[in-house]
Specification:
Blueprint lengths: L2 E11 L9 E7 L22 E2 L15 E5 H11 L5 E5 L9 H9 L3 E6 L12 E4 L8 H6 L2 E6 L2 H5 L2 H4 L7 E5 L4 H14 L2 E2 L3 H5 L3
The structure holds iron/sulfur cluster.
Length: 217
């Protein structure tokens, strides 16, 4: 049993990567020191005990993006998610940088309740999770731990320009092509055109943030 710092829990569709379009419950953990300039979840970065709520079911009803977070025991969290979910589909653990925290218990607790669990990580921390967990590695502003390139089930690379691809050329050359997708940052048109071109050249996959195009969470 372990306790986790959790910013919010909500139900939506996975908008990116391999599982695009699948209904999912998102569990956003608090805390990140990676410092990406294009981060769209800055509210989930800061860990400051004055921002803590007492344990509360309010976690499931956050109306706006705030840095307030809860400390939750993983088994309780998994049980509450199971009770509130219409279907046992995909459970996505994201952040912040979720792997700052040991995810072994939460991934196991969710898996045992019938969810298929996915972690979205920048790869900067050691990944501790249950064996069946799907790991999406999204290399960002800080170096990826070498072991995480092998652990990942998919590589989803955020792209603003050609340097973002060149920076990881060596590592990407060792990854099977079907695991790799390029994702334009912030739906930027120039980045999108670049990703389309490179995906065609390299036989990689394009990942668009469809939730932003259709206006859902
Ligand atoms: S790793 Fe994710 S949460 Fe952390 S700064 Fe980068 S985009 Fe934001």
């Amino acid at each position: 049993m372990s306790c986790l710092l959790v910013n919010e829990v909500f139900w939506s569709l996975q908008g990116e990567g391999f599982f695009t379009g699948r209904p999912a419950v998102f569990i956003r953990l608090q805390g990140c020191y990676v410092g990406c300039p294009y981060c769209d979840t800055r509210y989930a970065q800061t860990i400051d005990s004055t921002l803590q709520y007492p344990q509360s079911a309010e976690l499931f009803h956050k109306k706006q993006n705030t840095s307030l977070y809860f400390t939750i025991e993983s088994n309780w969290l998994a049980e509450e998610i199971a009770k509130r979910s219409k279907h046992k589909t995909l459970a996505i653990i994201t952040g912040g940088e979720p792997c700052r925290q040991d995810l072994t218990d939460l991934t196991q607790d969710l898996s045992k309740r019938g969810f298929y669990v996915q972690i979205e990580t920048s790869g900067t921390e050691a990944i501790h999770c249950y064996e069946s967990t799907w790991i999406t590695l999204s290399p960002k502003a800080k170096p990826v731990l070498p072991v995480n390139w092998q652990k990942a089930n998919e590589i989803k690379l955020p792209v603003r320009n050609t340097q973002d691809i060149a920076r990881y050329e060596q590592e990407l050359s060792k990854v099977p092509r079907e695991k790799i997708s390029l994702q334009p940052v912030s739906c930027d048109p120039q980045a999108t055109a670049l990703c389309v071109q490179v995906c065609q050249e390299r036989n990689w996959r394009l990942s668009l943030q469809i939730h932003k195009y259709i206006g859902i969470l």
